[in-house]
Design goal:
Helices cover 38% and strands 32% of the residues. It has 71 residues and is of the alpha+beta class. Strands 2-3-1-4 form a four-stranded antiparallel beta sheet. Strand 2 and strand 3 form a beta hairpin.
């Protein structure tokens, strides 16, 4: 499955890279791509969408607490 999230208030390119790397390391995630300029993250994954979304939200909050993750 493929899903795109908005990363509102993402203001650090380095942090965008850290988010991308951390999300790629999550179980069930096949590929993650964060576009700093577009403030979007595209994730290819398998498994439970709600669980993947929850874990991605946790990763984003840990790395960039001020970033809002939305669909």
């Amino acid at each position: 499955m493929r899903k795109v999230w908005k990363l509102e208030d993402l203001d650090c390119a380095h942090c965008a890279g850290k988010i991308e790397e951390a999300v790629q390391g999550l179980e069930g995630v096949e590929e993650a791509n964060v576009s700093f300029m577009a403030q979007k993250m595209t994730v290819e994954f398998s498994g439970d969408e709600a669980e993947i979304s929850r874990r991605i939200a946790e990763v984003v909050a840990e790395i960039e607490p001020e970033v809002t993750l939305s669909e």
